[in-house]
């Protein structure tokens, strides 16, 4: 099986308790990606997205656009590896 592109994105700010995960899930349905979105204990939200790098970039931009009023900082890391996800879901 071929390796896939994985993007891990951390969002900081007022990102919990505002529908961030649900909005991310709805946005993900518009793209051909798999992965997950989860709240972290430190108050951040983490997105793991697998797929075509261009598709992931547009997806992350769409999340940032929809939730821009709540986001203070975005940290991103890319890697390659075997696919881990079959769909996109809230964790």
Could you please describe the fold and organization of this structure?
The protein has two helices and five strands, in the order βαββαββ. With 91 residues, the protein is of the alpha+beta class. Strands 4-1-3-2-5 form a five-stranded mixed sheet, with helices on one face. Strand 2 and strand 3 (45-51) form a beta hairpin. The model has no long low-confidence stretch (mean pLDDT 96).
Q: How would you summarize what this structure contains?
A:
The longest helix has 14 residues, at 53-66. The protein is built from two helices and five strands.
Q: Low-confidence parts lasting 5 or more residues at pLDDT below 50? A: none
In whole angstroms, how far apart are the ends?
25 Å
Sum up the overall morphology in one term.
Answer: globular
Strand numbers in spatial order across the main sheet: 4-1-3-2-5
Number of domains: 1
Q: What is Rg?
A: 12 Å
Task: Count helical runs.
Answer: 2
| Structural class based on helices, strands and sheet pairing | alpha+beta
What is the share of helical residues? 25-40%
How many beta strands in the DSSP annotation?
Answer: 5
> What is the level 1 CATH name?
Alpha Beta
Considering the chains and any ligands shown, give keywords for the structure:
globular; 91 residues; Alpha-Beta Plaits; alpha+beta
Q: How do the helices and strands line up, and which of them pair or pack?
A:
Layout: E1 4-13, H1 20-28, E2 33-39, E3 45-51, H2 53-66, E4 71-81, E5 88-90
Parallel strand pairs: 2-5
Antiparallel strand pairs: 1-3, 1-4, 2-3
Helix pairs in contact: 1-2
């Amino acid at each position: 099986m071929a390796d896939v592109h994985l993007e891990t994105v951390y969002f900081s700010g007022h990102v919990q308790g505002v529908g961030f995960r649900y909005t991310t899930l709805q946005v993900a349905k518009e793209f051909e990606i798999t992965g997950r979105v989860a709240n972290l204990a430190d108050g951040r939200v983490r997105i793991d997205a697998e797929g075509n790098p261009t598709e992931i970039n547009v997806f992350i931009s769409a999340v940032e656009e929809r939730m821009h009023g709540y986001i203070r900082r975005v940290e991103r890391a890319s890697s390659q590896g075997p696919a881990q996800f079959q769909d996109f879901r809230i964790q």
